[in-house]
Amino acid sequence: MHTYYALMAAALLSLIGISMNQAHFLSTLLSLETMTLILFLLMALPPLCWTNMVLTPMLMMSMCACEAGAGLTLMTVTTRKHANDQLANLNLLKC
């Protein structure tokens, strides 16, 4: 039970990190990755008791890997195009 409280507190701190530290694209991506890791851990703990949910954390981890790859690709493209990774200087609505 204490594990769930610790993971929920870590998720809350990650959410606060996203809302407070919006200066750089990389720090936002790291906070998002922390949230997906915490979500994976929250999904991986119940299958220890119930065996019908064993494949769910593996599916979540594959989606997290795809999200991380897409995030790093977006960061690389925007850094090459705008010469920095600061979110304040980006106008992502341009074509």
UniProtKB/TrEMBL annotation:
Gene Ontology molecular function terms on file: NADH dehydrogenase (ubiquinone) activity
Membrane-crossing residue ranges in chain numbering: 35-55
Predominant location category: membrane
Membrane topology recorded in Swiss-Prot or TrEMBL: Multi-pass membrane protein
Compartment(s): Membrane
Signal peptide: none
Function: Core subunit of the mitochondrial membrane respiratory chain NADH dehydrogenase (Complex I) which catalyzes electron transfer from NADH through the respiratory chain, using ubiquinone as an electron acceptor. Part of the enzyme membrane arm which is embedded in the lipid bilayer and involved in proton translocation.
Protein name: NADH-ubiquinone oxidoreductase chain 4L
Origin species: Pseudotrapelus sinaitus
